[in-house]
# Entry
Amino acid sequence: MSTSLLAPRITLQHWRTSIQLNAHLLALRNANLHPSRRHASGKSIGDKRERDQPKKKKKTRITFKQHDLKHAEQFSLCDAMRYIQAFEVGRPPNSPKYDLAVRLRTIKNGPIVRNRLRLPHAVNTSLRICVICPPDSKHAEVARKAGASVVGEETVFDAVKEGRIEFDRCICHLDSAAKMNKAGIGRILGPRGLMPSTRFGTVVENVGASVKSLVGGSEYRERNGVLRMAIGQLGFTPEEMQTNIKAFMTEVKKDIGLLSETITKEIHEVVLSSTNAPGFTLNGDFKSANSPPSRDLSVL
# Structure
């Protein structure tokens, strides 16, 4: 009998069974080589239910985050001034400024503290003040005597339109408010924060008193839960600094007290720094046992 008659007949069904068996063996081999196939996220490929779950949102804080002061190093006023002056060696006494930052425990989207204060010892004495009023009137004479550097109406309007803004603060007399609005200088002075308005108390009847309050005065405004203000010049004595700090803190507490009863603001930290020096947290004392004599801090 020939060998061709003894060979088994391979049918289409045999081919299909062989292909299925090879595919099954290949799957088993891959499973042994990769027993825990996972995504880059670390989750298994088959765990679709866990992957499709929405991520939990983090709770947003409604108050500003403040660090704990229990273990923070705090300094007396004289000690802080001594360290700050070490950073300012070689600089003119009137050039760098002492800055005071008051951190508040407060909500993020609540009302802010904003005001103007004339310190007992003026810090910024080079403030240029403009008064909009008739140049030949008695109000103009009073404004000049009080310390205004620019006084007038049409001359001020023309200078502003030409881009010559040679002042840092602007006050308008009540009788000149209509002319000022008609001149259309609000689009120029407004973005710079110089446009007089009744809301901010810069459209007034008594220009002399307003100019005097601005000369040597400073503004402070709460930003992100912090009040900042130039509190003194580098050549100030510790006693002058103490007087200015007390006046500022007293005014801040008054401003907080004027807010609604439903709004809570508390002073968390007071930090003294300067133009080129880091901040030093104050502990409320004037001097410590190791502080140098105050007269030594008055001479740079």
About this structure: Residues 65 and 105 are 8 Å apart (CA to CA). Residues 1-6 have pLDDT under 50 and may be disordered. The two ends are 124 Å apart (CA to CA).
